[in-house]
Amino acid sequence: MSLSWMLVACGRAATSAPEPADATPPAAATAPTEGPLAAVYAAMDRSAAPCQDFYRYACGGWLARNEIPPDKASTSRVSGIDDVNHAVLRTLLEEAGQRRGEDPRRDRIGDFYAACMDEAAIEAAGTTPLQPALAEIARVRDAQSALEAAARLQPYGVEAFYTTAMEPDYKQPRVNLLMLMQGGLGLPSRDYYLGDEAATRERLARYTKHVAGMLTLVGEAPAEAERRAAEVVALEAALAQASLPLEQLRDTEATYHKHSLAELRALTPAIDWPRVFAAAGNAAVKQVNVATPEFFRQTAALLAKSRKEVLRAYLRWKLVSGAAPHLSRAVEAQGFAWATELTGQQELPPRWRRCVDRTVAALPEAVGPDFVARAFPGASKATANAMIVAIEQAFERGLATLPWMDAGTQARAQAKARGLSNMVGYPDSWRDYSQVKVERGDYFGAVVAARRAELARELQKADRPVDRQEWLMPVSVLNAYTNPLTLEMAFPAAILQPPLFSIELPMAVNFGAIGSIMGHELTHHFDDEGSTFDETGALTDWWTPAARAGFDAAATCVVSQYDAYEVLPGLRVRGKQTLGENIADAGGLKYAHAAYVQWTQEHPETLPLGPLTGEQLLFVAFAQNYCGKDTPQSEEMDVLSDVHSPRRFRAIGSLVNLPAFWQAFQCAEGTPMRAPRPCAVW
Length: 682
Prior knowledge:
This protein has about 675 residues and is of the alpha+beta class.
């Protein structure tokens, strides 16, 4: 289980805010026009009243100057970091391809990127690379053989019927346990299939037409493809019906069901799971966590009564849809057409950018060393580490102020906070990919080889000790994550970049931007999911009943707050689905601010702040993390299938509850940016 950033009880009187770090504005009366801080002020609209609409105040300048590019479904101020990182990655991959023979690692990433960029060879290959997989599918005769075929075809991008993950055992977190989870859908979530609204039926009709079009690319005649597509979508709809809503998957106790293979066979008598695991590459799996047992019971029954023709059509669809980005222009374009329907994105990104992403996905820790060398100055790591420690200390101090937490639970929470490990920038050692065969002129073969190696590496972890030094995210990906089972937080080099972080920015900006993200990841260890894991990372009830009741009451307040936010006409944020991220956003901001207050008492700001105070600048920097625009389709998809709230509500949802923010901007009672009944969990 990992939780990523890329996102006191209700009505209780607010406690007083910490003493302001700088109660009077600095001497500078005008906003800077040069240097890193100038971009912060340029993104603002200081004609807006901060206590009326802080999102416009913090982001109005950026919003006025930026539109969504046709090759994206959204854009944001922070995504500018991703553009810069991609340019760095492009240069290092092109150089690696041009300077062969100096380093096998660089040769491999250069060859992979070059193979991806060789469109002539990819066009010449057409769909020929899929022929071995299609032959495998043609041999499917029943549910058992369909599941085994799906397992063997995972290197081709096939994710069928269900999904798997390798996680630490929730109750023995030092040992890995294979998790079986609901899945197999072609649409982003179960909500896209269920309901009898006209919009849902119409979208399913368009989706069925898309599936039919994709099936024709692998040999189906048009009329036959239409019939098979309808059967495929009906199968997916049945899987959706058997699936739990996303909010219910957040219940860690309800998604922990450890089964021996005999118990798994009893749950699904018709399926020989050892043969399925052997087909995937590990016949030695001894036990599993069946996260959603009822889904597997219903799915086994569904597959048992499905005709072999339907199972084959479904697997062909999963094959071509998963492989489409790596095939000819016609196949990739056909697959992308449905992305336009779902997200509103009008164009594919440039070929070079897609190939950068694919090289990183295939060989992340082979690309990582060169990215770190170019994009992550050495002094940055020390400053980032010091900030994290300051935020952790602020969190520990804050525990004593929580009115709902008793002394016993507080002591356990402090022990857990002190046991967290911070992974900053990059790993101490890099993974080896010498077993991955990459040849220029055979791009699809390189993709399959990289996936096969990674799948084998993952599956071999089953029932073995957890490697607590492993990074679960490439260092060149713009994000951060928490793993409550291993008590770790990771902040890759890619996110430790301006405007989120720079040693050339005032610490007020650093604490508001990356500091709130650091606090976000820290708070995840204590949100509605993370709080169920103790100081060893084990799933256990370590709270007193009174403390848990206080937490639940405070969390209910947050759920109600976000339920009220309307994203599009008739479409509201799902407060329970997004609860963990909303708690983490609020805690992250609160403790980043508290850490900054303490920091400036020991290390006064040395860089100019402009016309704002340090605290004001911190809150602006926090909100600017979420300056952005999304297509309506992308916003709808996020609400239906994401655990993060839409960006505008991430910006204002935490601020309205924080007394320190009200003080910094003198927001009076009754103003929109001061909640009349503030919610506070941590």
